[in-house]
Write a structure and sequence with these properties.
The complex is a heterotrimer of chains A (220), B (266) and C (220). Chain A has nine helices and no strands. Chain A is mostly helical and 220 residues long. Chain A has a single domain, classed as MetI-like (MetI-like fold, Orthogonal Bundle), CATH 1.10.3720.10. Chain B is built from ten helices and twelve strands. Chain B has two domains: 21-117 and 214-251, Periplasmic binding protein-like II (D-Maltodextrin-Binding Protein, domain 2, 3-Layer(aba) Sandwich); 119-208, D-Maltodextrin-Binding Protein, domain 2 (3-Layer(aba) Sandwich). Chain B is globular and about 55 Å long. Chain C has one domain (23-215): MetI-like fold. Chain C has helices spanning 13-57, 59-68, 71-81, 91-117, 120-128, 133-163, 175-186, 189-219. Helix content of chain C is 80%, strand content 0%. The chains are: A mainly alpha (220), B alpha/beta (266), C mainly alpha (220). Chains in contact: A-B, A-C, B-C. Chain C: One of its GO terms (molecular function) is L-cystine transmembrane transporter activity. Chain C: Keywords: Amino-acid transport, Cell membrane, Membrane, Transmembrane, Transmembrane helix, Transport.
Chain lengths: 220, 266, 220
């Protein structure tokens, strides 16, 4: 039927390597998400409460992250910064690029979350004698996290999918490793088909884990 | 019921049969020759000031199209893509400085050699690399899917320095990485040394690599022997007509290397 | 060593034209994919809403695949698969096909959300006024639901516009690929990446701001 002979054996032989690479993908995505959540939270708070150049910088970060392609951002952390003699390893390029991107998107989610918690709650908790720090960490932020829990899950999935761009900056995560093997055996289709399945499974596992976690965290 | 199924199966086998690949007829009939060419490998394949394809390989493609009396269509490919485009039938022929390794010959068909290269490094002038031994502990860059990559990874494995290797999408990214100082040495071929060191102030010619000369061939579909025969004839005619010398002189400079492998029939 | 201070050497006005043309190609492939993809996506969204069980078992999982596998893997897979089944698609056509399906898979969810946003009593009221099912869809569901999910759709469209940068891996010379070509020729990564980034930003930022302001206006 096809004028093409499928060779699956080489792919199966390198499956252990691909799975190792899949862990690297997961690792860089999780790390980028943790950093992204912390920075995103800071960016959102800065944009809501501060004035002057710091606020402007935070806005720049958010708008640049949201309005340029992720691949562009990776190139920028690669050869763009290289022009100034700042050399990141492929791992760092991907981590920095993903963190930059995730922080920008999450900042907007957090802002929406903060806006959804009424001011009166903050004032009420302050009048109960809580410090501002207590009011934020005990009253506001837990509610914000409940609101942004779903967007964070989505962003986690995006982070995994986006990390595939690593193959274009020389990072040997799942896609990069796939490309490396495919370039040796010239079986692009077979390798990438298997990799697509691995990504699908990773994404599904994340969604299931997130749902399980949600039932533990948010018992209504 | 089984009879019916068997009949259908029989018809299906008959009608699919062994597909007769005949690229030569296809090309002449189609009126276009689709050449896969690597365009980030100056001066063999590159983009000129107008961003149009140019170089030794591009001219070879045009010459072949002229011989066939068809239009040439240049399909820019990366190193990693140049053999898959043949396997999937996206291109009829690849002029891409492809070394004729036995591993690759399991997948695609090779002609007799049409150009000869040897591997050489380009180094950042601050890297302090002068001889091959100096590379120990340095960051090495090469393009994904090339012979230099594979050969280097063998040596790197011996030295235990695979971590220092950086794989890039294209030769030009390798050069840029060396120029910027992201890598200390980029492994490429001797032909690229001159244009690259002229283009980048921070890049100088580096040591020759210890592995053997690269005999590179034109690539076609493995099953299509008549097409490979035609391509062989084309390669011989390019040499006989003096076109090979002319193009080599134009793009690389100096005398064209003799395309003969000493001591063995080819 | 100051390799990148000589900003304009090697970069000619001609190259700006080259980038401009590439930008138009980015625009063209995006507009084409977003238009067809949206039309398909709305159709799928309607099928998902009306089809219930049957659609959940057929259309939904297929669309889900396109949301759970990195776009870059989809592009590489399809580009290498097409010739196997005898389709000789160039990078542009392959890019349009995948971007369209990708858009459709994202828009389908948005569209279903839009239909769900219109409350049942409202639709019943429309039907009891004598409207046919299609009139109800056209004059009640479309304007109200469409308004509810318009910002989400703009998000998807802008996302696809940015993601069209990935078609560069197939060799289609859109904006990001053109900048790569120029970077390798002129060795000015910072300048060229800045120009490319500015273009994406100039396209995406005003639209996202406009959508946000519309959202605020409609929310009042």
């Amino acid at each position: 039927m096809f004028d093409y002979n499928f060779h699956w054996r080489p792919v199966m032989k390198s499956l252990p390597d691909l799975l190792d690479a899949a862990f690297l993908t997961l690792q860089v995505a999780v790390l980028a998400m943790v950093l992204g959540i912390i920075i995103g939270l800071c960016l959102a708070l800065i944009r809501m409460h501060m004035k002057g150049p710091i606020r402007w910088l935070a806005s720049c970060w958010v708008e640049l992250a949201r309005n340029t392609p992720a691949l562009f951002q990776l190139f920028f952390f690669g050869f763009g910064l290289g022009a100034f003699g700042l050399h990141l390893s492929p791992y760092m390029i991907v981590l920095a690029g993903l963190t930059f991107n995730c922080a920008g998107y999450l900042a907007e989610n957090f802002r929406g979350g903060f806006n959804a918690v009424p001011d009166t709650q903050l004032r009420a908790s302050r009048s109960l004698g809580m410090t501002a720090w207590q009011a934020y960490t005990r009253i506001v932020i837990p509610q914000v996290f409940r609101i942004v829990y779903h967007p964070i899950t989505n962003q986690m999935v995006w982070a995994v999918l986006m990390s595939s761009l690593g193959m274009l900056v020389g990072f040997r995560e799942l896609s990069g490793e796939t490309q490396f093997f495919a370039s040796r055996t010239f079986r692009i289709f077979e390798y990438f088909a298997v990799t697509a399945v691995i990504y699908y499974v990773i994404v599904k596992l994340i969604l299931i884990a997130s749902r399980l976690l949600a039932t533990r965290l948010f018992r209504y | 019921m089984y009879k019916k199924l068997a009949a259908i199966a029989a018809i299906a086998t008959l009608s699919t049969g062994p597909a007769l690949a005949d690229t030569l007829d296809d090309v002449v009939d189609r009126g276009t020759l689709r050449c896969g060419v690597v365009l980030d490998f100056p001066p063999i394949g590159y983009r000129d000031a107008n961003n149009e394809p140019a170089g030794f390989d591009v001219d070879y493609c045009n010459d072949l199209a002229e011989a066939l009396e068809v239009e040439a269509e240049v399909l820019p490919v990366t190193w990693a893509e140049r053999l898959p485009v043949i396997v999937t039938g996206r291109a009829d022929v690849v002029f891409g400085a492809t070394s004729d390794s036995l591993a690759r010959a399991r997948t695609v068909g090779f002609t007799i050699p049409y150009a000869i290269y040897y591997a050489q490094g380009v180094v950042n002038k601050d890297s302090g690399i002068e001889s091959f031994e100096d590379i120990r502990g340095k960051r090495v860059a090469a393009a994904i899917g090339t012979v230099p990559e594979q050969e280097w990874l063998k040596i790197a494995a011996e030295w235990g320095e695979e971590k220092n290797y950086q794989g890039y999408q294209s030769e030009n990214e390798v050069f840029l990485a060396v120029a910027q100082g992201k890598a200390d040495i980029g492994i490429t071929t001797n032909t690229a040394i001159l244009p690259i060191t002229q283009q980048y102030d921070s890049v100088v010619a580096g040591p020759r690599m210890p592995w053997t000369t690269d005999y590179t061939s034109v690539v076609g579909k493995r099953e299509d022997v008549t097409w490979l025969n035609y391509l062989n004839l084309f390669v011989t005619h390019q040499v006989r007509s003096g076109r090979y010398d002319e193009l080599w002189g134009k793009y690389v400079g100096g005398d064209a290397p003799e395309l003969r492998i000493p001591g063995v029939m080819y | 060593m100051e390799p990148t201070i000589s900003f304009f050497s090697g970069f000619t006005p001609n190259d700006l034209l080259f980038l401009g043309e590439a930008a138009l190609r980015t625009l063209w492939i995006s507009v084409l994919s977003i238009t067809i993809g949206t039309a398909l996506g709305v159709l799928f969204g309607w099928v998902l809403y009306e089809g219930k069980l049957a659609a959940t078992l057929t259309v939904a999982p297929v669309l889900d695949i396109f949301r759970s596998v990195p776009l870059i893997i989809q592009l590489v897979l399809f580009y290498n698969f097409a010739p196997i089944v005898g389709l000789n698609l160039d990078p542009f056509a392959s890019g349009v096909v995948i971007l369209t399906i990708y858009t459709a898979s994202l828009v389908a969810n948005v569209a279903r959300g839009g239909i769900e946003a219109v409350e049942t009593p409202m639709r019943r009221a429309a039907r009891s006024l004598g409207m046919t099912y299609w009139q109800d869809l056209r004059y009640v569901v479309f304007p109200i639901g469409g308004r509810a999910v318009f910002p989400a759709w703009v998000g998807v469209a802008l996302g696809v516009m940015k993601d069209s940068a990935l078609v560069s891996v197939l060799g289609y010379v859109e904006l990001l690929k053109a900048s790569q070509i120029l970077i390798t020729r002129t060795q000015e990564p910072f300048l060229i990446l800045t120009i490319a980034g500015a273009f994406y930003f100039a396209l995406s930022y005003p639209i996202s701001r406009y959508a946000a302001s519309l959202e605020r206006k409609w929310a009042q």
